[in-house]
Amino acid sequence: MNKKPVYITEKSPLGYGVKSARETLERTARAFKLSGIINNHMVFVKWREIVGPRLYEACRAERLTGDTLTVRVTDSVWGQELRGLTGELLARIAEVTGSTDIKKLRFKTGPVDPPAARPGPLEPLPDMEEEQTELERQLAATPLGRHPELCRVLAGVWCNSRRLLARKKGETS
User: 151-159: long-range contacts (C-beta < 8 A, 24 or more apart)?
Assistant: First the structure.
């Protein structure tokens, strides 16, 4: 089975034929039929947006099994209150996640984990800026050099990953 080569001629902000990581991931998810699964699991990422800050303090989306989302609530009073809001919660989940696959909510009483603290922006390590500039220069000398924005992004990703690894190891430079 011979397939004809595909030539990409549309211009993106990164240059001809260069796709953003988001476009590539979305296309891959569609190709492997993962879009629905990803949309369903967005309920965990967007739970605070779905329920609002007041309810977020009292409940967390815990598990998705088939079409049933298990929600942990701090006590039975909240469980009863949320049971009465099931229709509204399901509509809000569909609105925010773009998925109508979640049809039922199940409520469990138990401790609710506190929200994870988000780390603030990391200060650049002194030599990382120099390293990024040097890496951009080296990438510009390759065929990728036709796409300066891509070179800048790749160098940034490389240096940020090194910076995070250095922070994890407790280094300061």
Answer: 156/132, 158/132, 159/128, 159/131, 159/132, 159/135
At 21-63, the pLDDT tens digits run: 667 767 777 777 776 666 667 888 889 999 998 899 899 999 9
Instruction: Name the residue with tokens 């303090």.
Output: 57
Question: Both tokens of residue 83?
Answer: 């049971």
Q: What is the CATH number of the domain that holds 68?
A: 3.30.300.180
Q: Which residue has the tokens 């990703």?
A: 157
7 lies in some domain: no
Grade residue 6 by pLDDT with cuts at 50, 70 and 90: very low
Q: Which two tokens stand for residue 118?
A: 């988000």
Token pair listed for 141: 């000398």
Range of the domain at 62: 35-109
Element holding 124 (H helix, E strand):
none
Determine the residue type at 150. Answer: L
Question: Is the per-residue pLDDT at 124 higher than 70?
Answer: no
Residue 70 tokens read as 């298990």
Tell me the two tokens of residue 126.
């002194």
Task: State pLDDT tens for residues 62-94.
Answer: 998 989 999 999 999 999 999 999 999 999 999
In degrees to the nearest 10, what's the CA dihedral of 87, 93, 95, 100? -80
